[in-house]
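Notes for week 9. Today we move from apo structures to complexes. The key idea is that a small molecule is not decoration. When we ask for a structure prediction with flavin mononucleotide present, the ligand SMILES becomes part of the input, just like the chain. The input block below holds both the sequence and the ligand string. Read it once before you look at the output, and try to guess where the molecule might sit.
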Amino acid sequence: MKYLVIDACARLNSRTRKLCQGYLNTLKGEIKIVKLYDLNIKPLTEKDLKYRDNLINKNDYSDPIFDLAKEFASYDEIIIASPYWDLSFPSILKVYFENISISGLTFKYDKDSVKGLAKAKKIIYISTSGGKIYGANLGFEYVKAIGNFFGIKETINFTVEELDIDPSKEKEILDLSIKKISELNE
Ligand SMILES: Cc1cc2nc3c(=O)[nH]c(=O)nc-3n(C[C@H](O)[C@H](O)[C@H](O)COP(=O)(O)O)c2cc1C
């Protein structure tokens, strides 16, 4: 199995990353970690779109701007580690999705429908939040929807809430959650 980890954690001591590591420790196979804050990815401009569309129209995917999409589409399982920010996730994760959402690589138009082209069967969405999440977890819901768009049928939510409510409980909550996530594949 080949696992691709998308790390959207901004902080050095990120609890989300620690939780994710608890999951990674249980895996056997090849693991590639992509730290989004170390990539030079930016929101798409009009110039970027023109450049990209021109290549897509020529069916030429040799440019390095397509490497992230090719990588995403080729892995067996996708693991996303992303804190809960402002009711969803850090904008760098959206920028990443903008950069990998490429017609001909992660999805294609098929007569009158859209077909996902990613190989993965599953996304594990790992997140932590400071407070309680009231209503829908929009970060998870978005990832589930775009994963489905790329052809990935299942997205599992592992979000740990209330890490900032009572500092005296933080370690206990995190340790218990790391134990739980390490049992996910048992
Ligand atoms: C920019 C920012 C936005 C946040 N927005 C929310 C929020 O909407 N709801 C919430 O419960 N916690 C929010 N938090 C708290 C984080 O979700 C929480 O501290 C989380 O555990 C951070 O993960 P980390 O330790 O991996 O960095 C926010 C934190 C930051 C820095």
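The mean pLDDT is 97.
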